[in-house]
Amino acid sequence: MTNVRFTDLRACEILDSRGRPTLSVTAVHGSRSATATVPSGASTGRSEARERRDGDESRYGGAGVLGAVDTVRTELRELLCSRSWPSLADLDAAMIALDGTDDRGRLGANAIVGVSMAAARMFAELQEVPLWSWLRVGDVEPRLPMPCFNVLNGGAHAHTGLDFQEFMIAPVAAATMADAVRAGAEVYAVLRELLAERGHSVGLGDEGGFAPEVTRPEDALHLLLRAIENAGYPAGPDGIAIALDPAASQFRQPDGSYLLNGHRHSSTDLVQRYVQMVRDFPIWSIEDGLAEDDLSGWRELTAELGDRIQLVGDDNFVTNAARIARGAKLNVANAALIKLNQIGTVTETLDAVETCRQHGYAQMISHRSGETTDDFIADLAVGTGCGQLKAGAPARGERVAKYNRLLEIASARPELPYGATEISAVRIG
Question: In 28, 173, 210, 353, which residue has its Cα 20 to 30 A from 185's Cα atom?
Fold first, then answer.
């Protein structure tokens, strides 16, 4: 099938995992329907595609999305049902043109990406292939991704005294998807016991990780090391490594310094602190180690650690192909985080993945802090063959949905390769 004629488009306001409003969008083709629900971030880059929120303080503190729902039901429905669509790329381009802004602000990026995701599901269903297979990019082989589990939350995800936002465990030596998920769940359970024994809270942050009242990132790293070892795994390349998302834009000060657990750091100071962390701990990846607009700091970090570990750009790249290409020319990072709602359409997301490949950059598919049980990104990670996915802790329904979908795909297609690709399998510390 080449052309798809949609017969209806529906939307309603629902809640995400943080209790904030978001959209559910359903695309209809005759008797068939395909639904997608839209995530939302807390730690966001300034250049991300812009959500449409109502601003009505009498509903959800102004965070309602009835305007975005109305956009789907009216302008986007009229567009979708106006003609046959030979491809999702044609539909996404038409929605971008209809919006007419650089940031999707008129119609709302949350409205547009919901339609794009639902339409992608319908294209896959009508072609009678799994979504991951339909999302393949060129001749890239589909691959089950290594999961990175966010087991300790800080920063904008927890609002404790811990400035770094995410401390993740990555089962780099796992042989299968099932082994990787089991390792993540086992370390998570042991970490809970360890925190309780030491008198820490075992309350959870936005992404399901624990949110203890520790302030130094090094103290959090020591907790992870102990949990990994207590769970019976080697810490490092032969077992479970560590990935960080400091989200440095969140603790950068107006004067350009970084305020980290009460102490000011210059860009160089912070880079050298990362260098020491990599020496002391089995750190495999650092995401957003510098602020999105700290170009000189990013270049310094890349020069220091770019040949040793993975350095992931998120706030500075915002899943934007042009920004990723520019970063590559400026020797910034060696990988990019990929988020569907950050750029606004499935097609642009796939373009960002392809741009990474052209420039030798690794890719990590990512969830958002405000999630739903939609498991689209699990299929996206498999179909693009990127080899990496972060979807939060191995707990809470909206996070586990992604990992369970990967286990389903692995069970149905055991011949699929598993794990980080060669481009992302950089040396650990």
Answer: 353
Task: For residue range 342-361, list pLDDT tens digits in order.
Answer: 999 999 999 999 999 999 99
Q: Is 5 annotated as a binding residue?
A: no
Q: What are phi and psi of 202, to 5 degrees?
A: -110, 25
SS3 185: helix
368 annotated ligand-binding residue? yes
DSSP-derived letter for residue 141 is P
φ/ψ region of 100 (left if φ > 0, alpha if ψ in -120 to 50, else beta) reads left
Provide the edge-to-edge strand list for the sheet that holds 32-37: 8-15, 21-29, 32-37
- pLDDT tens figures, 109-160: 999 999 999 999 999 999 999 999 999 988 899 999 999 999 999 876 556 7
Roughly how many angstroms between the first and final C-alpha of the chain, as a whole number? 49
For 385, residues 6+ apart whose C-beta sits below 8 A from its C-beta are: 136, 137, 140, 141, 142, 143, 421
d(CA 92, CA 99): 11
3-state secondary structure (DSSP) of residue 127: coil
Say if residues 149 and 393 touch (Cβ distance below 8 Å).
yes
Task: Residue 243: name the closest of 291, 282, 273, 210 by CA.
Answer: 282
Between strands 32-37 and 21-29, the pairing is: antiparallel
As a whole-number percent, the residues of the chain with pLDDT over 90 amount to 88
Catalytic positions, written as ranges: 207, 339
User: How confident is the model over 45-74, as a mean pLDDT?
Assistant: 94
- From the CA atom positions of the chain, what is the Rg in Å? 21
20 assigned ligand-binding residue: no
In this predicted structure, what is the pLDDT of residue 261?
Answer: 85
Element (H, E) at 241: strand 241-245
The reply to whether 165 sits in an annotated binding site is yes
Residues sharing a CB contact under 8 Å with residue 110, sequence separation 6 or more, in sequence order: 22, 23, 38, 40, 51, 52, 65, 68, 341
Q: pLDDT at residue 422 above 80?
A: no
As a whole number of angstroms, the distance between CA 113 and CA 345 comes to 5
Distances, alpha carbon 17 to alpha carbons 152, 339, 413, in Å:
17, 17, 30
Distance of alpha carbon 280 from alpha carbon 242, whole angstroms: 12
* pLDDT tens-digit map of 205-232: 889 999 888 889 999 999 999 999 999 9
